[in-house]
Design a protein that fits this description.
453 residues; alpha/beta; eight-stranded mixed β-sheet; 8 strands; 51% helix; globular
Length: 453
């Protein structure tokens, strides 16, 4: 057993490694055809989210530098063709829908014609949206198999609702035996779904999960990473996905400019800057989802779920109701100004006062972090306040406890210190104290509580 980890942490490490292995080990990438177009066929039950997912996959591929074409081969479900056209328009990708649908048209013929159309319009990826059913039947399987034989897809992706639970295994096995598929796409992986279906499908079918959809918006979709999902299942957060979201949203030049401004002093950071940063964070997605990606936040899940996303909009309305001078120097906001701002933003005067106070706290905290002081209230984390650097400084200033010259007394002191260390090692692997104190006693630092209101 590793000497660096206590027994509880060692168990977590072993379980994490096994979960990663079951989920496929490494991220499975799409196989692209040597000669365009690459054909991707989506299959699954009705209601699994295939049509919406076709748009998400198209937008994701567009972001990767491809030119995708969505093909409407679901001609049975009412308005399925119109839905795909709307989704394609929102995603900014092309759609091929020569038949009106609603029971009219031959989906196999549409699939064949789409390949020639893609070549003529220079689309390098074709995404075929097939029909689903409310249950597994032979007609659905035969139609999906006929489309597969007609277009010879490079990838057949089985779309499954992550919230369907263990019944997803039966559905996946039926599709594997009836149509065959190369990879799995999980839809609706947000909410309370934690990946039980992902574990079951990957283990039973032997097919790796390739993509995951974790929200209703078209951009809430990404490649599936086994190590990150394992971390999520164990409640350890997903820092890599959070960092990637930040890199996609924030401009490096703007980030450096803001850091330089904060380093000069707290007064350089204005409410305009605060609003700009808040809007950038909002672009990354739901605040509760972002906080859920942080390690250990699963222990305060109820508090995170209770965060009102509309608070960001209210805050923006208050700031936009201020004059340029008030945003630059909030100290000039007196009682009459607060009343005017409250009327303009449709909130109580107390909300304006609370915002200004939270802004001053946030400005102080951000300035301290930019100057290398760390974040207050987070002891023991390097660079976050109270880290090793500060501890060493304190140790130099204070006189250390002297060891007793009495051998018997010195031995008793050493035994007491060892007992304290063993007691600390028996705590939670995530840093929570052992015994009666647990997740219910966990509280965010005071600065964060003020900032979140």
């Amino acid at each position: 057993m590793s000497q660096a980890l206590n027994p509880a942490q060692q168990v977590i490490k072993i379980v994490n490694e096994e979960l990663i292995g079951i989920l496929g080990g490494e991220t499975r990438r799409l196989r692209f055809a040597k000669q365009a177009p690459t054909v991707i066929m989506l299959a699954g039950l009705q209601g699994a989210g295939k049509t919406t997912l076709a748009g998400k996959l198209g937008l994701w591929l567009k972001g990767q530098g491809h030119s995708p074409l969505l093909v409407a081969c679901d001609l049975q479900r009412p308005n399925a063709v119109n839905q795909l056209a709307v989704v394609a328009e929102r995603a900014g990708v092309a759609v091929f829908a020569p038949q009106p649908g609603n029971g009219v048209g031959d989906p196999v013929q549409v699939a064949k014609e789409s390949i020639d159309y893609a070549k003529s319009k220079v689309h390098d990826v074709v995404i075929v949206d097939t029909a689903g059913r409310l249950g597994i039947d032979q007609e659905m399987m035969r139609q999906a198999a006929d489309i597969r034989d007609a277009v010879g897809p490079d990838e057949v992706l089985f779309v499954v609702d992550a919230m369907i639970g263990q019944d997803a295994v039966n559905t996946a096995e039926a599709f594997r035996d009836g149509v065959g598929f190369d990879g799995v796409v999980l839809s609706k992986l947000d909410g309370d779904a934690r990946g039980g279906a992902a574990l079951s499908i990957a283990h039973v079918t032997g097919k790796q999960i390739m993509f995951a959809s974790n929200g209703e918006k078209l951009d809430e979709f990404d490649a599936f990473h086994p190590d990150r999902m394992a971390s999520r299942i164990l409640g350890m957060g997903d820092m890599l996905s959070l960092i990637e979201k930040a890199e996609q949203t924030f401009s490096q030049a703007e980030a450096e400019k803001m850091a330089a401004k904060l380093a000069k002093g707290p007064k350089e950071f204005t409410l305009d800057d605060f609003l700009a940063q808040m809007e950038q964070v909002r672009k990354m997605g739901s605040i509760s989802k972002l906080l859920g990606m942080l390690p250990g936040m699963g222990q305060i899940k109820d508090q995170i779920n209770n965060i009102d996303e509309r608070d960001v909009d209210r805050t923006a309305a208050i700031i936009k109701s201020m004059t340029p001078g008030e945003r630059t120097d909030p100290t000039i906001i007196n009682g009459s100004r607060r009343a005017r701002i409250a009327r303009g933003s449709g909130v109580d005067v107390s909300a304006v006062k609370n915002l200004v106070e939270r802004f001053f706290e946030a400005r102080k905290m951000m300035s301290r972090m930019a100057q290398g002081g760390g974040m207050p209230g987070m002891p023991g984390i390097p660079g976050m306040g109270g880290g090793p650097g500060r501890q060493k400084k304190k140790q130099k200033q204070a006189k250390g406890k002297q060891r007793s010259g009495n051998p018997m007394k010195r031995k008793a002191e050493e035994q007491a210190a060892q007992a304290r260390r063993q007691q600390a090692d028996q705590g939670s692997p995530f840093g929570l104290p052992a015994g009666g104190q647990g997740a219910q006693d966990f509280e965010l630092p005071e600065e964060f509580r003020k900032f979140m209101g």
